[in-house]
Amino acid sequence: MQVLKAAGVTVIGDLPFEDRTTQAGYLAALRVGFGQALSNQDTSSSGGFSETYRGDWYRSSIALHHQSRVLELEAEYEGFLTAQGITGTLGLAEKFIGFEVLRLMKAADTTSVIKPVFLVRDPRDTFISVKKFNEKRGFKSFNESGDDLSLLDSICNFSKTQVFEARKGNGILCYYEDFVNRRSQSVCDLFRYLGVMHPNHQFMQTFWGALGVDQSASKHMTSGSQNASMDRWKGEEFRHLHDLFRSRERVIFDIGYL
Q1: Domains of the chain: which residue ranges?
Q2: Which among 38, 196, 177, 182 has a CA at the least distance from the CA of 119?
């Protein structure tokens, strides 16, 4: 999200549609004359985000079957943007969950305006973050049953699906660790994929400045820094989990981790 903000993308909480299928159909029926449309990022085991660029809208052939509904949704969407004080050609970012929604949108995208971005992190570190997050918040929102193996499998399956979708050519695969250790190159690769290039010095200064952790983000952090969040699973504190992690060694390797 911070990378997209630095690129000039406006981040909002949600698009105004509760029905995800309707939302997907509406967005897939609109094309942006300016540039890219959508991306998907995993921020934990539970979901990701999508980014849609506004521009000159038009209705695809798929939308013709539901043209009246599309017109209603477009009016609602434009009203929402106006209420948010958002005008002109810019980016909007929204979190969403569901690969089926993404596949539906990609299937309707004949002009490659939908550009998924899959952000993958070591499942073992994600597992620990989820556990720590639950402790921090005082509930088991991501692991209600308390079954650690089931939780790890859910995280691995989500990450493996992201890798699978990226290998099918449905998006770009980005590794969290690369954004920490190879930040400049990773950001340049991502921007090139999205068609957003800011090579000047002023932008890079803005970008680096935008990567500080704000107060709202810190509420969700379970480690002191980005560097401290990597290879956390190797620590002595989590030795009791190593047998659990070894039981899923092969799938973790398939995701891209030794």
Answers
A1: 2-255
A2: 177
Distances in Å between the alpha carbon of 250 and those of 153, 171, 211, 242, 257?
Answer: 12, 24, 34, 14, 9
Beta bridge partners of 30: 59
Going residue by residue through the chain, which has 258 residues, state the pLDDT in tens, using 9 for 90 and above: 666 666 666 655 554 444 444 455 445 444 332 223 333 333 333 333 333 333 333 333 334 444 565 566 556 656 666 666 655 444 555 555 567 767 766 776 676 767 788 889 999 999 998 888 767 665 555 566 678 898 899 999 999 999 999 998 888 899 999 988 888 788 888 878 877 765 555 555 555 555 554 444 444 455 555 666 778 899 899 999 999 999 999 999 999 998
Give the HSE-up count for residue 245: Cα atoms under 13 Å, Cβ half-sphere: 20
Say which CATH architecture domain 2-255 belongs to: 3-Layer(aba) Sandwich (3.40)
pTM: 0.64
Closest by CA position to 112, among listed 28, 183, 197, 213:
28
